[in-house]
User: Fold this.
Amino acid sequence: MGALTGEIRTGLLDDGRTFAVLSAATFALKAIFVKLAYAAHPVDAVTLLALRMGIALPFFLWLARRERGAAEGPLTPGLWGGVLIVGFLGYYLSSLFDFIGLTYISTGLERLILFVYPTLVLLIGAAWLKQPVRGKAWGALAVCYLGLGAAVWHDLEQSGDARAVAIGGAWVFASSVTYALYYIGVGKLASRVGSTRLAAYCGAASCLMVLAHYAAAGSPVRLGELPASVWGYAAAMATISTVLPIVLLAAAIRRLGAGRAATFSTLGPVLTIAFSWVILGEPATWQQVVGLTLVVGGVSWLGKSK
Assistant:
């Protein structure tokens, strides 16, 4: 029996699908931890983000040190500039907009807005890089945004505050736009910098940007005044929903390849909404389920139509 258990355990740990699912699940908890922190104490988005990134910074520095001698060679000034721009767009600006948006809207709507970033990558590519959009892709775009409309309907019915939904939705959509730009930048830099080294350098740079923002903004909340619960949720965001997904996804990509590992990302919105029902007690409605189905289906269709 012990040998059989060991074989099963080894098989699970060697299966890239397990790592991919766990990566999606741990990242899906990020918005849940943010909402729990907001509920535990009146903390602003900049302070909470600074806590998250400050705790995550040692990991990114360790990873950057480990990858410093990567086979891709030293970075040129131009590549360093690209890394800083990508870090600014991704872990810093996109995260900041997302944290602000979560003060207004539900985790379910937030996750679905973020999940449509592939549609923005497509549209930015068409407008900026002059990449043509195929006919089937337009149908996928329509399905995605019809699903978002259903998700917005859910939040409007539950909160009754159209202004809050509009403000929060706009902030998170801005987060999705900056993440799409980050994604395009990563695609341009990864082959020249190395994907792991790029993640480490971008992560470390963005952590420093967030901490500088916190120091310059003069947040009304002092870190020492925050209760242990907020520190705990920030630590969970930094470890469970920032560091761990990166490590797990890297393990999944090594075993499955980037394309197959990416297919498991569709689990993210499903898991976030499920966690919001179970952990946060957010109500489940048919509008949200329809929105989830259409957005996930539209993004999957978009991936196949390229």
Notes: The chain is about 85% helix and 0% strand. Residues 4 and 10 are 10 Å apart (CA to CA). Residues 162-193 form the longest helix (32 residues).
